[in-house]
Amino acid sequence: MKARVFVMLKDGVLDPQGAAVQHALGGLGFEGVEGVRQGKVIELDLAKGTTEETVREMCEKLLANTVIESYRIEMA
Hints:
The structure is a single chain. The protein is α+β, with helices and mostly antiparallel strands. It has one domain: Mth169, Chain: A, CATH 3.30.1280.10. It has two helices and three strands, in the order βαβαβ. The chain has helices spanning about 15-25, 50-65, and strands at about 1-10, 40-45, 70-75.
C-alpha cells in the first residue's frame, strides 16, 4: 500500500523559494507567471492495513509543520 502526502505552505505564509522560482522563470523569458508556491510530496510505502488516520498522525507529528503548512493525503 502506498500513500502520498502533499505539503504546501498555508496561504499568507511567505514562500521565498516560490518567489525565487517565479523570478527565475521571468529571467528565462516566461511571461505571465503571476505567482509560484512550492511544496513537497512525500511517498510512503506502508504495510497492509495501515490506515489513513495513522498517516494523518504522521503528518501532524513529523511530516508537516501544521502551524505554517497544510497537507493532503492520497492513499493507493
